[in-house]
Amino acid sequence: MEFVLKNWYEKNHNSGDQLIKERGICLEDDCNVKKFYEVFKECETRVKGKPYTAETCEEEIVDLMEALDKCVGHKAFHKFA
Predict the structure, then answer these.
(1) Where is the Ubiquinol-cytochrome C reductase hinge domain (predicted)?
(2) How many CB atoms lie within 10 A of CB 12?
């Protein structure tokens, strides 16, 4: 999953979509988002290190996405206010 997230970010970092750019900035610079990203990476490492596990890191990825949305929310939708 980490590869997917990094791959997504690298492909979309120079995107014309402002929301994607802002998420990338949050992923790099926001301490709260970084914290959730680190928790997600730890989970991913743990899951990949086991031959079989029911653990999926679903909670960690949802927490990360919510942190990203919170980080970009005021930037993404300020024109609608």
Answers:
(1) 27-79
(2) 15
Specify burial of residue 11 (Cβ count, 10 A radius: 0-12, 13-18, 19+).
exposed
67, amino acid identity: A
CATH superfamily of 2-80: Ubiquinol-cytochrome C reductase hinge domain (1.10.287.20)
3-state secondary structure the chain: CHHHHHHHHHHHCCCCCHHHHHHHHHHHHCHHHHHHHHHHHHHHHHHHCCCCCCCCCHHHHHHHHHHHHHHHHHHHCHHHC
Domain boundaries, the chain: 2-80
Beta carbons within 10 angstroms of residue 47's beta carbon: 15
Kindly give the interhelix angle for 58-76 and 31-48, rounded to the nearest 10 degrees: 160
